[in-house]
Amino acid sequence: MMDSRSALLEMRDVSVTVRGAGGEVPVLREVALDVGRGELVGVVGETGAGKSFTARAVLGLLPHGARRISGSVVFDGTELDTPRAYANLRGTRMGFVPQNPRLSLDPVFTVGSQLVAVIRRGRRMSRTHARKRGVALLTGLGVHEPERVMRSYAHQLSGGLCQRVCIAIALANDPELVIADEPTTGLDVTVQRQILDLLRSQLVRDGRGGLLITHDLGVIATWCDRVAVMYAGRVVAIGPVADVLREGHPYAHGLKGIAVALEQGVEPVAIPGTVPTPGDRIEGCAFAPRCAVATDLCRADDPAPRPYGDQLVRCHHPVADAQLPAVGHPTRSEEVEV
Amino acid sequence: MPGDPAKIFAGSQATDTAIAAIRAQFGFDKPLGVQYLDYLAGLARGDLGTSVRTGHGVLDDLTGRFPATIELILAALIVALAIGVPLGVAAGASARRGVERFARGVSTLGVSIPEFWLGLLLIVVFYSSLDIAPAPVGRLDIGVPAPDGVTGLITVDALLAGDLEVLGNAAGHLLLPALALGLPAAAPIIRLSAEATASLLRSDHLFYTRAIGTPPHVVYLKHVLRNIAPIVTTMTALIFGFLVGGAVVVEEVFAWPGVGLYAIDSLHYNDYAAVQGFVLLAAAVYILLFLAVDLVNTYLDPRKRLT
Ligand SMILES: Nc1ncnc2c1ncn2[C@@H]1O[C@H](COP(=O)(O)OP(=O)(O)OP(=O)(O)O)[C@@H](O)[C@H]1O
Ligand code: SF4
Ligand SMILES: [Mg+2]
Predict the structure, then answer these.
(1) Does the residue A1 lie in any domain?
(2) With CB atoms counted within 10 Å of each terminal CB, which end of chain A scores lower, N or C?
(3) How do A9-20 and A23-35 pair as beta strands?
(4) Topologically, how does it sit relative to the membrane (chain B) (predicted)?
């Protein structure tokens, strides 16, 4: 069988297209990332970068009209290439926290019945027993009056409570892998901290792991071991969080500048230009129109992934910290000249 | 309505005095406005007037025939839902174009086939040619006694009485008219439930339901059906009007002794009171139905409940 130290999850060059007005349009382009055992990997990128599609590709649940045209997803040594391969995986071995919990819980069933159903898929037990376990899970997540919450419908609960219900559902069967899509949006900082601490403590042990999708580099820096930076449907940099944020891909650096500015409470200087949307003609490096150090080579040739220290970056001119113009960094913004 | 009901009632041989007497008996000699006020006054007392054709109170006539029509419409509804909902869900869920096209074809066909034509076709095929259906006359074979029962729906009463022979006979008679009425009604159900299912499958919560490992059969049988239930209920009320109209035609084709046949016969007789009674009944049933749908939907959709 498989080497126990092999990756828990491996996405190899996964490309996904959606049917658009003018034919098939790529939304994921050769996405490659992996989650090792005992690690939490962050996925960061601007809106529309393909983060949620990456989660859906791992879950094998692409929306209607979307198609995986190439690549593979390997979970615990098994290739997930057919619907059959996913049998008894989702909800039990693979947990999922959705981006919008209030819209994600089924509105016509109580949240408790949805939690109980998941618990009972994991192991055979009576409904009463499963309910008790559900209540315990919610209590563990700091939910007051868990019985009342169990009896409620999603529309009767706050976003934060729905969020915790979804986290309880994700963790109910002690999954080996949890994919969390913006699990803390809309929660206040204390609750966010509490939930991410819990997620991390649950995942970074016993050879389990997680994929944490977020806009928030601060979250990545605090809770993740490694990070994958996405841009225009592609993973452009992946590696240890500190490395990726320090040097390498110019885009990652730009994001970091924005994050630092936000942290300091100053107006960040946005990276100039806009994100390409699926269907835009992309020649060479997708980031070239916005990149401060782009060259003719960048505009002509799409960079393949190459090692840079402990990272893998898709960039022709990965640069060390000192060389980088501080795009987005307010304290050095006068340097931004292209 | 043209024509003089009193003349028709009296027959072609009747003398003028006889006709005048009939006019006076039914109040046709009074001015129209007065006739109308009389009718309203009667209505307030629960009196729908007297049928010139049967000579009975219209209310009694209608109550006697109503169960037959209800039985036909309910059976047609069951046919329409049993065919329409699964086909619609399958069409809405299928990523393959073929299934969707098939459902679209079926539903276009359904909308464009008139009930009387379908009724005749069914009679020609299953009675005249194959001889596996009973003669298209009435609700039971001649000589088979109708069961005593509270509902007046022969199939239900027979079932409650445990009389399988009568049940089989009644069901045999019911089948073709129910198909003639129900198959065209399946068309709008297919289309609407296909649309509802397709948009549901694009929703966040159906994606989430699958993402947390709900097996496909539970996704469809529990989550999809339960989520489209309010739409199906509303749809049922909407096609009810369609079914009442269709029932008039189908009852005539199958000599089904319901209020639709009564209305048609009364129409031929210029039996105003009877026709008006039928229209009122249909309207009343319609209003009650919409109230019921509101109640049911409040139950089916927790977001509408006040808690
Ligand atoms: N059902 C769909 N059909 C076609 N295109 C879609 C569909 N859903 C999303 N897209 C497009 O695919 C791209 C990637 O979307 P995705 O949801 O993965 O982005 P994301 O990185 O999760 O963004 P966000 O941070 O806003 O959640 C976006 O440009 C989006 O407009
Ligand atoms: S490849 Fe060129 S354009 Fe693209 S990020 Fe690297 S330097 Fe910038
Ligand atoms: Mg997203």
Answers:
(1) no
(2) N
(3) antiparallel
(4) Multi-pass membrane protein
Query: How far, in Å, is the centroid of ligand 1 from the Cα of A232?
Result: 10
Alpha-carbon span B138 to B125, nearest angstrom: 18
Last residue of one domain, picked from the residues A172, A189, A218:
A172
Chain A residue with CA closest to B297: the answer is A108
| Residue minimizing CA distance to atom 5 of ligand 2 | A315
d(CA B94, CA B3) in angstroms, rounded, equals: 56
> What are the residue ranges spanned by the domains of chain B?
31-306
Q: Which amino acid is at B38?
A: D
Q: How far apart are CA B260 and CA B265, in angstroms?
A: 9
Q: Please give the torsion angle defined by the CA atoms of residues B138, B143, B144 and B150, in that order, rounded to the nearest 10 degrees.
A: 70
Asked if A306 contacts A239 with a C-beta cutoff of 8 angstroms, the reply is no
Cβ distance A110 to A103 under 8 Å? no
What is the per-residue DSSP string for A65-105? TEEEEEEEEEETTEE--SGGGGTTTBTTTEEEE-S-HHHHS
Atom of ligand 2 nearest to the CA of A313: 6
B93: closest chain A residue by CA: A64
CB of A298 closer than 6 A to ligand 2? Answer: yes
Cβ–Cβ contact A163 with B under 8 A: no
Element (H, E) at B20: helix B16-26
Using a CB-CB cut-off of 8 Å, the residues of chain A touching B210 are 61, 90
A52: Cβ below 6 Å to ligand 1?
yes
Asked if A186 and A163 touch (Cβ cutoff 8 Å), the reply is yes
Q: What is the domain extent for residue A143?
A: 100-172
Strand partners, A26: A17
Same domain, A116 and A210: no
CA distances, B21 to each of B14, B25, B251 (Å): 11, 6, 34
For the four alpha carbons of B182, B187, B188 and B192, in that order, the dihedral sign comes to positive
How does pLDDT run along chain A (338 residues), one tens digit per residue?
444 457 899 999 999 999 877 788 999 999 999 999 999 999 999 888 999 999 999 999 998 889 999 999 999 989 998 888 888 899 999 999 998 899 999 999 999 999 999 999 988 899 999 999 999 999 988 899 999 999 999 999 988 899 999 999 999 999 999 999 998 876 778 888 888 888 888 887 778 999 999 988 889 999 999 999 999 999 999 999 999 988 899 998 888 877 777 777 777 777 777 888 877 888 899 999 988 889 999 999 999 999 999 999 999 999 876 555 554 444 333 333 33
CATH of domain B31-306: 1.10.3720.10
Kindly identify the ligand whose nearest atom is closest to the C-alpha of A271. 2
Numbered residues of chain B with Cβ closer than 8 Å to any chain A Cβ: 95, 198, 201-214, 218, 223, 226-227, 229, 300-303, 307
Could you tell me if A34 and A11 are in contact, meaning their C-beta atoms sit under 8 angstroms apart? yes
